[in-house]
Design brief:
The protein is an alpha/beta fold. The chain has 14 helices and 15 strands. Its EC number is 3.5.1.4.
Length: 483
């Protein structure tokens, strides 16, 4: 029997009844990777010997009466997480030989839950692209169309899931890095509420793995079903035991509703700063129609929605302040000179990126204060709605574009070119205020490419968009293996 595309929930049930062993699942996954990954290039650092040993240990543990949430289930891990004994490079050639001696906290949680780690998945350089290629490991290809990207920066994880290389994966997200690859590859992902899941050990080399509280960035689960996202989030969620975990325990509230007919949903398909391509708009409408058919209250406009233009500019400044913080002094001074030359009337996203790279601490505090106003506006919106449905990016997966200057790249939206980085504005809708967002499949483009949407929920009410994702999976279908 082929188990490669079964959900983790299905595999756990089969393992419990003895229908299959972890050793059999692991050998099947390894065989599939060795056969198919020469083309996809999703698994950049295999760890097959230890995976086999872990699978055998899982079978012995189960025979002895043990049962843990992921006991014996093959999974993958994004390259950016530390795994003791394996390289963590973030795709940066100077660090190709960096080998941590300790697991990231999330890898430790996977292992404690009984997972079998098959290896690590590919990423872009420094995790800073909507694609996944680097000089060390090469280019990861979309399983649906090898000429296109699987997305980034968790593109290797999404491609692995779509190819049947393990049932689950863990990634990270600051600019849609969980959601965009899920959208491009037809799988599921969940960007948790900011701070919900500890991130220690998901750090660029050679920095030490300290329990830092990140701004904007989160770690989260990827899967081939909505229920599997919840299964894996329950393993990942919780404070770092070195910091907040000393005093605090986790108690996520249940979903606001269990039935589709009880949900109140705001649906968005237009952004003031970039058009939505026809294929993505069709995906949003397909979800909206399913919500209406299921009896949910669906609205297309609300005066409670925070200003999307202001939100996008604020997100862009915070994001690029984060990314430029480690630039060399000479490069930083050049950016300051360029930013000083901007016209005060230039309110483009390009100008926001440049200004963000050189924000003073005073200006960052001002931006952070404006973010709190947006968070308050979202709280008021979620008093009237349970979720917001909107695009993840304006297009399905696009052809590989390895131009070294991302500012020179363009994204084609229904035949019209737009600045490449402007596509991040939809990711920022949830990222800037720190809201949870679940990426779900929503059909296919006319070319047969996957299309997804995101379900944004109230802060720390992650189970609400996750439950809505489950109900939509029942209503419109979910993951399908690439044809």
């Amino acid at each position: 029997m082929d188990w490669s595309f079964r959900t983790a929930e299905q595999l756990a049930a089969a393992l419990r009844t003895g229908e299959v062993t972890s050793t059999e699942l692991t050998e099947e996954a390894i065989a599939r990777i060795e056969r198919d990954d020469k083309t996809i290039n999703a698994i950049c650092v295999p760890d097959f010997d230890r995976a086999r040993a872990t699978a055998r240990a899982a079978d012995r543990a189960r025979a002895g009466g043990e049962d843990r949430p992921l006991l014996g289930i093959p999974v993958t891990v994004k390259e950016s997480y530390d795994i003791a004994g394996l390289p963590t490079t973030w795709g940066m050639p100077p660090h190709r030989d960096h080998i941590p001696v300790e697991d990231a906290v999330q890898v430790s949680r996977l292992k404690a839950a009984g997972a079998v780690v098959l290896g690590k998945t590919n990423v872009p350089v420094g995790l800073q692209d909507v694609q996944s290629f680097n000089e060390i490991y090469g280019t990861t290809r979309n399983p649906w169309d090898h000429a296109r990207t699987p997305g980034g920066s968790s593109g290797g994880s999404a491609a692995a899931l779509a190819s049947g290389f393990g049932a689950l994966s863990i990634g990270s997200d600051i600019g849609g890095s969980l959601r965009t690859p899920a959208h491009f590859c037809g799988v599921y992902a969940h960007k948790p509420t900011l701070g919900l899941a500890a991130s220690r050990g998901m750090v660029p080399p050679p920095a030490p793995a300290l329990p830092t509280e990140l701004d904007l960035a989160v770690v989260g689960p990827m899967a081939r079903s909505a229920r599997d996202l919840t299964l894996l989030l329950d393993v990942m969620a919780g404070p770092d035991p070195l910091t907040f975990g000393v005093a605090y325990g986790l108690a996520l509230p249940p979903s606001r509703h269990e039935r589709l007919s009880d949900f109140r949903v705001l649906v968005l398909d237009e952004h003031p700063l970039i058009p939505t391509g026809a294929a993505v708009r069709a995906g949003v409408n397909r979800v909206a129609d399913a919500l209406v058919d299921g009896g949910a209250r669906v609205e297309r406009h609300s005066p409670l929605l925070p200003d999307l233009t202001e939100a996008a500019v604020l997100y862009t400044q915070l994001l690029f302040a984060n990314s430029a913080a480690r630039f060399p002094a000479e490069a930083y001074e050049q950016l300051r000179t360029r930013a000083a030359g901007l016209s005060a009337e230039d309110l483009s996203l390009g100008a926001a990126r440049l200004r963000g790279m050189v924000l003073s601490h005073r200006d960052w505090i001002g931006a952070d204060n404006r973010r709190e106003l947006h968070r308050d506006a979202w709280r008021r919106l979620f008093a009237e709605y349970d979720a917001v449905v909107c695009p993840i990016t304006p297009t399905p997966a696009f052809p590989h574009d390895h131009h070294p200057d991302s500012l020179a790249r363009r994204i084609d939206i229904d035949g019209v070119a737009y600045p490449y980085l402007d596509q991040l504005v939809w990711a920022g809708v949830a990222t800037m205020p720190g809201l949870p967002a679940t990426a779900v499949p929503a059909g296919r483009s006319p070319e047969g490419l996957p299309v997804g949407v995101q379900l944004i929920g109230p802060m720390f009410e992650d189970r609400t968009p996750l439950r809505l994702a489950e109900l939509l999976e029942q209503a419109i279908g979910g993951f399908q293996a690439p044809e």
